[in-house]
Amino acid sequence: MRAIFAWGRETNGWRRLWCPSYMCQRVAAALAREITLVAYPLAPTSAGPPRIETQAGDVVLSIATLGRLVAPVIVGSAPIIEDHSHDPISPQAAASTADYAVASLRKTLPLPDGGVLWSPRGHRLPQELPMTDRHAHATFDRLAAMSLKHQYLEGRAVSKDDFRQLSLDGERDVGLGPISGISGFSRSRLVSLPAQEWRARRADNLAAFRDSFGQIDGLRLLDTSFVATIVFEDASIRDRVRADLVDDRIYPVVYWPLEDRVTPGVPDTDVELSRRILSIHCDQRYTPDDMVRVARSVGRAVAAA
């Protein structure tokens, strides 16, 4: 993503990037190194698309957040970049008519690094860059963390703190420093991964979770394709449920904390929403039976809260 905005700034005169107000602020911080950011109001719970009045030099980022793409209505003219990181091989991504599209590979695939950039409209693209030393070190940390975690889950004598720290170090460094190309490991491994099969398995797991979850007062299950995402009416209940799930060895995630806002214009309502939202992974590592167990655990945790 940094590569396309740095290239657009230098070759096409892009000066300002419109971003969804509800987005990962670590990503926003990386993009802010290349272009000025401004937010337009869009959250995972938004009912419809917002309107953006663009000016010369503007470019618009549309993100398929949690796999759900809600494109803004643009008044004026501006290039559109779509981010399909949460569902890169979806029919929606394949049918995109955006000027450019991007996706992080490591969000949905077991890879330590890498991303893809294409132009659905056939525009010229920036030249791919070689891998930098800093990126190579970050990739090694992430790959080491993945390997050690695999051994930990097999019951080997591996310290959980060790692989967590390696993962955090790699995650911190992978987006810093000069823009880098993909590692040779991820490039070679990518072609052999059964991505379509894994996407189908994710859909089956989501369906199993949704069917078992049913209707719970005070909770809303979002219609997404990336993770099972629950919106709570109360932040304190979210926190208690989250703690109970961790005690049950279920590790939910928050997409995304917004207390430390980087993008100008993020409203307080989005920050408040981020305190009430919780997501549960449902990818190819799990089975429908696993997701039924998790859904029942959520129900018990809510009842106890």
Structure write-up:
This protein has 305 residues and is α/β, with parallel strands linked by helices. It has 3 domains: 117 residues, 3-Layer(aba) Sandwich (Aspartate Aminotransferase, domain 2), CATH 3.40.640.10; 45 residues; 110 residues, Alpha-Beta Complex (Aspartate Aminotransferase, domain 1). 40% of the residues lie in helices and 17% in strands. It is built from 10 helices and 12 strands. It is globular, with a radius of gyration of 20 Å. The model has no long low-confidence stretch (mean pLDDT 94).
Topology:
Elements: H1 2-12, E1 16-20, H2 25-31, E2 36-40, E3 51-53, E4 58-65, E5 68-69, E6 73-75, E7 80-83, H3 91-94, E8 100-104, E9 115-118, H4 133-153, H5 160-174, H6 184-190, H7 195-213, E10 219-221, E11 228-232, H8 235-247, H9 268-274, E12 277-280, H10 288-304
Parallel strand pairs: 1-2, 1-4, 3-6, 4-7, 7-8
Antiparallel strand pairs: 4-5, 8-9, 10-11, 11-12
List keywords for this structure.
single chain; 305 residues; alpha/beta; Aspartate Aminotransferase, domain 2; three-stranded antiparallel sheet; 12 strands; 17% strand; globular
Kindly summarize this structure in a few lines.
This protein folds into 3 domains: 2-118, Aspartate Aminotransferase, domain 2 (3-Layer(aba) Sandwich); 133-177; 195-304, Aspartate Aminotransferase, domain 1 (Alpha-Beta Complex). Helices cover 40% and strands 17% of the residues. The chain has 10 helices and 12 strands.
